[in-house]
Structures are given as C-alpha cells and as structure tokens.
Write a structure and sequence with these properties.
Glucose Oxidase, domain 1; 9 helices; six-stranded mixed beta sheet; binds zinc ion
C-alpha cells in the first residue's frame, strides 16, 4: 500500500515580549482561509468540475477552497476562544515519488512568549498565544501557513491517488483533502515541537509542546532535557509519550484493540484476531452487533442476491476475486450493518487476517469491516448454517498506542525527520488517529474523544473547547445595564466575550453584518458639538452603533460604522451631539464567516468638540459710554452703537430689509457641523421691558481669534433707549450686555 506522509512546516521564529490585557473565550472561533495562490492556479484553477460529495464548487479552485473552509469550520466549531484565526493557504509542488508524497505542510507563522495567561519563558504558536491572551498579537497577519501538494495523483506523485474534494468522506481509493486538512490545521494550532529533532536544539527556551513530551527511559520532559537528550529521545520509539493530563484521561476511552467477538453459539464464542480496513468508519465501542449471514455470491464481487437475508445483519464474505472495497460496497447496498471478510485457502498468507486497503473510484462506505485468517474464517463458516451472533467492536481493555500508564505514545522512528518525528502520535495507535504521521482512509472528521485524541492534546497545550463552559457575559452585555461613561472625552476597556444579542436589538453594522456579541455604553453629551466615538485599541473586527431611545427594541440610529478604513478593522463614527441628550452606544463583532461575531477586548474612546469650554461671554467695550456695553457694530456700515432700528440711509442694504443688522462677539461658542445660525438666540429686553428672542442670522468663528461673531436683526418697533442682551445657545446663557437704540 502507498504510504503518503504528512509533513509540517517549521515555524518562523518571531519574537514578541510585550504583555497585553487578557480576556477569555467564546462559543466558537472564526477560521478564515486566505487564498495565497496566483491567478489561474491552486484555489484559482478555473478547470470546470462536477459537484462531488456535497462540494458544489463548479471549478477545481472553488472546490479546493470549499474543502479548506469545511475543514476550517470543523476546527472553528471545536475551539472556544475569542480571536479569529486566518490560515494562509496555497497549492504547490511538494516532495513526491511514484509511491509516496508529502501531502501538505503546515505550521504556526510566528511564535510568541511573554503574554498574559501564557507560561513565562515558554514559546507558543501565535493562534494559541492570541487565544490565551485574548488579544491579537500579530495584527492583520495570518496565524497559520498551509501548503498542499498540487501534484498528487500525477504519474510521478503517488500515481493514481488523487485528491478527493468531497466533504462526505466518500473518497474510495483517493486521498481525502478534508481529513488531511483537519490534520494539518492541528499542527498550526499547536501540535508541533519547535525544537530541532536532529540537533536537539530548542533555541534556548522550550516551546509549550515540549513541556508535555516525556521520555519514559529517562523520566524527563523535553523541556528539561539537554540537546543531546532530546536527540536520543526523538528516536526512542515506544518510550516517548505525551504526559498531558487530558490526553491521558481520554486514552482509555479512545484507544483499544479491534475485535470480532462471537456472542453465540457458545461453541465458537469469544474474541477473534482481525484485520481492519483503510476505508469506511473506524471500529468503535460498543460497535455493532448482529447475526452473521453469508452473501450470495459468496465473494460478493457482484450485486448481492440475498439482500433480504443480509439486510440488518453482518455480511460474511469470502476473500478473493475483486477488491475489498467493492465487496463491502455490494454488502452495504444489500443493507448490511457490517462486514466480515474471511480468508480462503488460496489467499495470500491465509493464516494472517489481512489489512484491507482502498483502491478505485470515490465511494462512500458507512459500515465497518473486519477480516479473519483462514482458520478463524473456517470456524465461522462451520456454524453459518445456523444462527451466529457477533460484534464488530473496539476493545478498550487493550490500548494500542499507549504505555502501561495510559500515556499516548508519540511518533519516534529510528531515523528522526523534522516535521514528522515527535510532532505526531505513534502509528501503533488503534483506531487510527487524525494526528498519526501517515494518512489513513478510515479517518473520520471528529477531533474529539472518544473518536480521536487531537483536541485532547490541544487542550493540554491550553486551548479551550466549545464544550468548555464559556465565561459569564460582561456586565454591560444588556442594553439596560449599559456602562455609563461621561465627560468631554475618555476611554474605557472591557470585553465582548460571552456577550449576547437581545430580542429586538438592531444590527449595529451599516451592512447588517454585525454579530450577536454586543455590549452597551451610555453617554450623556455634556455639550452640543461634534462627538467622535471609536473602538481603536480593540482586539477584533468591531462594529459600532450609536442610538437614542429608551429601550433596546425602539431605538433611533444616530450613526453606525464597521471599519474605519480598508486597513483598519476598528470602527469610528462622528455625529452631532446635543447637550443633555443620552446616547446609547453598542459595540459588537463583525460577523466574519457567519460565526456570530468576533469577540475580544473592547476599547471605547469618545471625544466631543465645543466641550469643557468656559462660560459663554458677550465681549464688552473696554471703555464704552454705558455700563457693560457690548462691543457691537452695524454689520453693514461698521459704525458703533447707538443703532437706529431702521436705517433708511443704508444704501448698501441689498435685501430690501432696512432693519439694522447688529454684529456682536461671543467667546466659548462654537457650532457643531450640523447646526446653523438658528441654534443661537439673542435675548433682548428693550427700554420698555419688552422681551424679544431673536434667532441669529449668521454665526461664524473669527479667523485666528478665539471668539465667534453673531449677527442678528433688530426687531421692528424696538423702543428707543438702552437694551439688555444675552446670548442663548446649547441650553446655556451668556452674561448680560447693553446696547443702545436711537431714533
Ligand atoms: Zn502531520
């Protein structure tokens, strides 16, 4: 049988020593595939293809991408950690011969140490470092690099075994891309040593993975060893184990020995040694139990004619004539729940129960298969005239692939290979594990116990899973519990991890692609001006909404934003705030890939123009003839008071309205972007105590001066004498000044 091997890309050594605030976990992680291929090749290959196995892409490139995203989503649903993960992926020519191939290579793009929730002085792959610290430690850079062998199946590259791009496991004799990618992404998530397995060097400091690698011969962890000890340990097969507590706890429920157990008749009852198939589902516990029935024809190399007897039972099939997978397919079509293939006298090595490889076209096998040597097969045949009941099952009393203390064995072949040795489980494991170094056709898509140990190992490294209880929601999760912020400007830190969306709550993104992880803030504008609110400093792709209204289901949107610009996933809005108005501010995650919204640490910043100014003052004449006399001009003639109400001599009046326009000057008054002059009122009380509230006709700041000019029209019939004026704006009132009216 061909033995394609997985390989693993050694991580680039990049260093980050800066600590950062922590947050924690969520219900799933967004895992995005970044297409790193050139036009026309890899993911961009335009070759038309037919849908296969649930993959409905219409080009080769699309189907490749669909399979990548499918595998990424499996990890996304498994992990429970805030920051999203980007996998930079491409298709290229990797090492090949006619009968072996490096299928893919993957690794963390950077490694990090010195962050919160990490063990000091220990290196972590960036995806795990981001998850543990709850912060984005590598900016817009991808976390994981993955390359897949584009040449697979070519004459010089494992000839005849092509990539199966279906999503359903129905690969037949082909190599299933989804299973390979689930394996590869696990390397990128942390299942890799950063040490050199040939020189033993760990670059002076251990990686987190090495803290769980133990050599049973010396009793030492890799993180405790000298380089020479690591070199020896890397080839100490059978004695290199995983010392992590989660894997060790799960080993007795995952590993075992495949059995055919005959339950009756008593004369032949007991366990039989079996061979297993490289296709179909793994042998599981408790497995399947049924009556054993011989097929017609006995070799099942054509359609089974006694389907009525086979259906619901275990099919017994003679070895020979055609491929194993074809026999099983015929039995499956007849309704069998499992298959036993028995050697015949003319079989190769009839005394050995054969391992059964898969060859040929894609086909979906859903029932388990075991084989028997000739002697055992004859024992069963002797009873198949009557009722024989048997189980195809995984026996957990003998754990293949573990030491006597339930530690999983790690792959440590006699010749060390970087990227293969140490960074996989041992090939002696049964059932076949996702993280063995060689691809197996019977791998499922689960990375969780009791099917597999991959997530158990990642959990030992520090990953939390979606089955781990999420942390409690933040205190400002709900609208009614909005965090109160105040003042002209400021900044607060928090988190939207475990936050929820409420019934009736609007979407906070202008494109309606906000998520369901919102937190709320409440801010009462202390002045009227231009308010700017941003999420700069937050650790994830935020969306931001600002509203008015008293309940979450009856809000009026003031402003919304997703991204500040194409290069900045934080959000920013600027709007006209009115003094005294309460604004409700929501921060949510962008719903990347439909995962419900990014989560992470939130930083909310706010600032307001025209805020925190001193009291509004009408500027006075320094030596005017009357007390508190306003510095004022006729706006057309530029003469000082006293002013006539109607200036019929004003030849410059262009609007046919001869009433005098008075210009006064006011400090600490600015209009916001969306206000006009009418936002300012001049309150005037004339000498007869008649009050007029006069909207300003023009308000503008005076260039290079720290004051604003306000122009207003004197009302008709104003009494002659001294007036008192005040300026009212933004709910505030200025000092009182005087102005004289003449006849
Ligand atoms: Zn691998």
């Amino acid at each position: 049988m061909n033995r394609p091997v997985f390989a693993m890309l050694r991580a680039l050594l990049l260093v980050s020593l800066v600590g950062f605030a922590a947050s924690s976990a969520s219900a799933s992680v967004t895992v995005t595939i970044q297409n790193n291929d050139s036009a026309g090749v890899g993911f961009n290959d335009p070759t038309p293809v037919a849908p296969i196995g649930g993959n409905n892409g219409t080009t080769l490139g699309q189907q490749r991408m669909n399979a990548f995203q499918f595998a990424a989503n499996i990890w996304g649903a498994t992990l429970n950690s805030g920051p999203s993960i980007t996998i930079r992926a491409s298709w290229s020519g990797l090492t090949c011969t006619t009968d072996s191939a490096v299928l893919a290579q993957t690794g963390a793009l950077t490694i990090h140490t010195g962050f919160s929730n990490g063990i000091p002085g220990v290196w972590y792959g960036v995806a795990l470092a981001n998850a543990l610290s709850g912060s984005d430690r590598n900016g817009s850079q991808a976390e994981i690099s993955a390359q897949v062998n584009v040449n697979l199946g070519n004459p010089d590259c494992l000839s005849g075994s092509h990539w199966y791009l279906g999503l359903d496991g129905g690969h037949g004799g082909d190599t299933e891309l989804v299973a390979v990618l689930i394996h590869e992404f696990a390397h990128g998530l942390g299942m890799q040593t950063f040490s050199n397995v040939k020189t033993g060097s760990d670059n002076g400091t251990p990686g987190i993975y090495d803290r769980f690698l133990r050599d049973n011969t010396t009793g030492k962890l890799w993180s405790e060893m000298s380089a020479a000890e690591r070199v020896a340990s890397a080839v100490n097969g059978g004695n290199l184990v995983w010392a992590g507590s989660q894997v060790t706890a799960d080993v007795p429920n995952v590993l075992g020995t495949p059995r055919l157990t005959v339950n009756s008749p008593g004369s032949i009852a007991g366990n039989y040694t079996v061979g297993t198939a490289n296709f179909g589902p793994s042998i599981s516990s408790p497995g399947i139990m049924g009556n054993v029935v011989r097929t017609q024809p006995l070799d099942a190399c054509s359609a089974v004619s006694n389907a009525g007897s086979i259906s619901g039972n275990i099919a017994f099939i003679d070895r020979g004539t055609c491929n194993f997978i074809d026999k099983v397919k015929n039995a499956q079509n007849a309704g069998a729940i499992g298959v036993i293939i028995g050697n015949v006298s003319t079989s190769n090595n009839p005394s050995v129960a054969p391992g059964m490889g898969a060859v040929g076209a894609p086909v979906l096998i859903t029932i388990p298969t075991e084989s028997l040597n000739f002697s055992d097969a004859q024992t069963l045949r002797g009873q198949l005239g009557g009722a024989v009941n048997a189980s195809i099952r995984l026996d957990h009393s003998v754990l293949l692939g573990s030491d006597s203390s339930d530690h999983a064995l790690m792959f440590a072949p006699a010749t060390a290979t970087q990227g293969s040795s140490v960074s996989h489980f041992d090939t002696s494991a049964f059932p076949n594990l996702v993280m063995e170094p060689n691809y197996s056709g019977d791998l499922g898509h689960s990375v969780l116990a009791p099917q597999d140990l991959t997530f158990s190992l990642l959990h030992d490294l520090g990953w939390a899973g979606s089955s781990t209880p999420p942390p409690p929601p933040p205190a400002n999760d709900n609208f009614s519990a909005a965090q109160v912020i105040s003042g002209c400007s400021g900044s607060v830190n928090g988190s939207n991890v475990s936050a929820t969306k409420e019934s009736g709550e609007p979407n906070h993104s202008p494109d309606n692609n906000g998520g369901t992880k919102s937190v709320w803030y409440q801010w009462q504008a202390p002045a009227t001006g231009d308010a700017t609110i941003t999420t700069a400093g937050s650790s994830f792709d935020t969306v931001l909404g600002v509203y008015t209204g008293g309940s979450v289901a009856s809000l009026t949107a003031v402003a919304k934003n997703d991204d500040t610009n194409a290069n900045d996933a934080t959000s920013s809005v600027t709007f006209c705030a009115t003094a005294g108005t309460i604004y409700m501010i929501a921060v949510d995650g962008y719903n990347n890939g439909g995962a419900g919204g990014d989560v992470g640490s939130v930083t909310l910043n706010w600032s307001l123009t025209n805020c925190g100014l001193g009291a509004m003052q009408i500027m006075l004449e320094e030596s005017g003839p009357a007390a508190n006399q306003a510095a004022a001009f006729d706006a057309v003639l530029f003469v000082r008071d006293p002013f006539p109400v109607v200036n019929s001599s004003d030849v410059f009046n262009l609007v046919g309205d001869p009433n005098t326009r008075v210009l006064i000057f006011v400090t600490n008054l600015q209009l916001s972007q969306c206000e006009n002059a009418a936002a300012v009122t001049v309150n005037l009380i004339d000498s007869l105590n008649q009050t007029y509230n006069i909207p300003a006709q023009d308000v503008r700041s005076v260039p290079n001066q720290a004051f604003t000019q306000v122009l207003f029209r004197l009302p008709n019939n104003l009494a002659v004498g001294t007036c008192q004026i005040k300026v009212i704006a933004h709910g505030l009132t200025s000092n009182t000044a005087t102005l004289r009216i003449k006849s």
